[in-house]
Amino acid sequence: MDKKINVLDKGFVELLDVFGGDEAAVRAARISYMSTPDLEGDKRLISLLMVNGHESPFEHITLTFYVKAPIFVARQWFRHRIGSFSERSGRFTEFDEEFYIPDETRAGGNVKEMENAMHDAFETYKHLLKSGVKREVARVVLPMSLYTQWYWTVNVRSLMNFLKLRADKHAQYEIRSYAIAVAKFFRESCPLTYKAFVKKAYKGDILEV
User: Fold this and answer.
1) Which active-site residues does the annotation give?
2) Which residue, 54, 62, 70, 209, could crosslink 49 as a Cys pair with Cβ 3.0–4.6 Å?
3) Which domain holds residue 136?
4) Is the overall model pTM greater than 0.90, yes or no?
5) How does DSSP classify residue 20?
6) CB-based contact 140:167 (threshold 8 Å)
7) Is residue 57 part of a domain?
């Protein structure tokens, strides 16, 4: 399994750790009845849980991702609060001149104008730092297109909620691109749960079994 997927022009999603899997959700669900696991029964059980919205067993599966994305994508992502985030600090590190540049279609033919504005902002940032302004203050001139990085540890119940909202045609293109990458790792890590999710709980038209 490829552990890293490139997204947009300079971003990526990397899967670092998986704790549990389909079997963890099944184990958690079966404790209610002290029933014995078997593959075909497990498939039916996962499907039944998904259909009936009994999603707490999926909280026993967690994934940790390393993500690099523009700040405006991060701010949408962080609204999904049932998860743990650790982000690069602009107080303690100096940023590189690394911005998301949309293509001409997304930018309405104004890519060069956008690039110039980002470059000018970064030049101001560097000037402020050289003048003795602290990083925590100088960073306020930087645009939302600047790339940031973070770790995201999330249980699968919350991950599925993320995908319902972000792997959807109504979601902004940029975060939707990241959601599709996350979904690929979900599918590879928990194939039974992913399949049941797409068939029974997912309402969008982006993801496929």
Assistant:
1) 166
2) 54
3) 111-141
4) yes
5) -
6) no
7) yes
